[in-house]
Write a structure and sequence with these properties.
Helix 1 links the parallel strand 1 and strand 2. This protein is an alpha+beta fold. Helices cover 38% and strands 23% of the residues. The chain has a three-stranded mixed beta sheet, with no helix packed on it. The protein is elongated, with a radius of gyration of 12 Å.
Length: 52
């Protein structure tokens, strides 16, 4: 997973949201109890945070 965030983005908050909301929803949608994930952060000058 590649996460783009602005310089100085709160990586702790992003990780928290990913582990408490994003990944559980993805696991449920795929009907998997576990799902290996590698996260790569890319820092940008954009003002919004998004995952793709």
């Amino acid at each position: 997973m590649v996460i783009s965030t602005e310089q100085g983005g709160d990586l702790t908050a992003i990780n928290h949201r990913l582990t408490t909301q994003g990944l559980p929803r993805l696991r449920q949608a795929l009907d998997h109890d576990t799902l290996p994930v590698t996260v790569e952060y890319r820092f940008t000058t954009r003002t919004s945070t998004r995952a793709r």
